[in-house]
């Protein structure tokens, strides 16, 4: 396959770029907006469900049109007394916990004026735990880590923690998008000297729940980007760059669990 | 209006405005001829005179001038051959600074400005240097990797423009440790400094032998010159005779003809706090002198080693080819200042080492005495304007070794010692 010169030039420019292009800024904005939207949607859903549960409980408490004769004191109750506990129980019937733990391969990069312009590849793990607000909308927390620690004499580690939202795109609840907002860090350490950076970050993923009897396998492709922060020496706290941005592209398999 | 004419007119206007406003601190990239004609000459201006084989006149040479920050007229870089007339100057000043990415920021370098400021600084000493010793080197996009494995993930890129007065043809540096240094660096980790100073390289009156040990060479000038870090490593006769005179059939190691001036410089505030430190090493291959206490003026000439015998041992190798002849049975070498001799000091390199700045939150403009001391935010008599980025760039790791200029030879037509 031949690469046309304009395409090659674009690729070279992209490899050497120092400042984010409009496309990157737009993509970053979309990720942040999507993540924020999902979190907002989750919060609204919680409020709506709570309101529904409260309404249902109120209806249960309203007087019956024709009062029935009182049962004898020794007879058992025909229906449970409506309480907050029963409302929560009702919620649990429709909703529930979910979790996911996965392992994959990811390219990690640090972009700044003084950073080497290349990504490295290593294993990455991630785990999520959350609450199902509805059959198609989930919220929770996610943590991820990427360890480029095998060989080379230097360890590079990315860590991230996010508030996430997941929305299924199909009726059979298989294909989903998953986004989050949180904090990511990148450390470089050769055992003697290290540099680290930490900044607000967004993650965006797309995955597929593949249900095999009681097990759900979830292949996922995910991207992580950060807004950028100072890259500091851990020995002197002086920053070698003020704008270090973390980037990661990950493919993974997870085992998911829904209650 | 044609863009070039417009730019020229703009430059002239800016130059006139600058003269009217006496804005002497701003770097002047292209002073107008009128401004140069009107300027008073500095001590360094007009001191070059042509030697026996140089074909340029002093008038041609003096066209290569610039205004210093003090408004005086100084000599500046020129090629070894005048591009307008084709005449040769017989000496060179290294790499044309106009190719440096820092040139727009720095402008033409005023040779001898720090020496001139020392006269005004009331420090009780003077130091003036010859013209041919001013040597410029620069590199754009120099990649510097911080040490250690962590450095592999980082890539600091710098533009560097340096000039040291490094005369390697006379006895001057045997005893004199003060040499004018211009040091300009700008990196993508926000390291940036623009420094002009007299670098005190080791102690006055002595130097380090290329074979090791300290050689006491006389009294320094000025005698009260401050002692600095680093040293001037210069070959001496006893060292060279033992290493370079070889028996027939063997080749001399001309690598022994190598000077290394290892500077260690600091810019300090008046209270002694260090604002910046940098330690470039300046190296010259095949200089036209070595220290010889038995020679007239204590200066030995490497080219003479090609005709110097101790028994059947003498300097042998292609560096001596064509430089000797036998007259009446006596082997003679050409004169040290013959343009055929490769011992002319035109091959050099600079090691760019640490560049430390400790100026976070401080002003970016400091005024120091000519030795980089007594830094204050305001100018004072004899002070030199220094620019230092408002950062701390000590990352806890050393940066050593990038070499610039090692693959270049600046000799042009007619270039010869003294150079």
Q: Gyration radius of chain A, to the nearest Å?
A: 25 Å
Q: N-to-C terminal Cα separation of chain B, in Å?
A: 44 Å
Helix/strand-derived category of chain B reads: alpha+beta
How many structural domains are formed by the residues of chain A? 1
Indicate the overall shape of chain B: globular
Global shape of chain A: elongated
What is the correct CATH architecture of chain A? Beta Barrel
Largest sheet of chain A: 10 strands, antiparallel
Number of strands of chain A: 10
- The portion of residues assigned to helices of chain B is 10-25%
What does this entry look like structurally?
The complex is a heterodimer of chains A (259) and B (419). Chain A is α+β, with helices and mostly antiparallel strands. Chain A has a single domain, classed as Porin. Helices cover 24% and strands 49% of the residues of chain A. Chain A contains three helices and ten strands. Chain A has helices at residues 5-16, 22-61, 84-94, and strands at 96-111, 120-134, 137-148, 155-168, 175-189, 194-208, 210-212, 215-226, 229-233, 239-258. In chain A, strands 1, 2, 3, 4, 5, 6, 7, 8, 9 and 10 form a ten-stranded antiparallel β-sheet that branches. In chain A, a hairpin with a 2-residue loop joins strand 7 (210-212) and strand 8. The longest helix of chain A has 40 residues, at 22-61. The two termini of chain A are 49 Å apart. Chain B is an alpha+beta fold. Chain B has one domain (107-404). In chain B, the strands form six sheets. In chain B, strands 7, 8, 9, 11, 12, 13, 20, 21 and 24 form a nine-stranded mixed β-sheet that branches. A six-stranded antiparallel β-sheet of chain B has the order 3-4-5-6-23-22, with helices on one face. Chain B has a three-stranded antiparallel β-sheet with strand order 10-17-16. Chain B is built from eight helices and 24 strands. Chain B is globular and about 70 Å long. Chain B has helices at residues 3-21, 33-38, 58-62, 103-106, 113-120, 172-175, 237-244, 302-305, and strands spanning 65-67, 73-75, 134-144, 156-165, 178-187, 192-200, 206-209, 214-216, 229-234, 245-246, 258-268, 274-278, 281-285, 290-291, 299-300, 309-310, 313-315, 324-327, 330-333, 347-351, 355-357, 365-368, 384-388, 403-404. In chain B, strand 14 and strand 15 (299-300) form a beta hairpin. Chain A binds chain B through residues 110, 113-117, 152-154, 156, 188-195, 233, 235-236, 238, 240-242, and chain B through 146-157, 187-190, 360, 391-397.
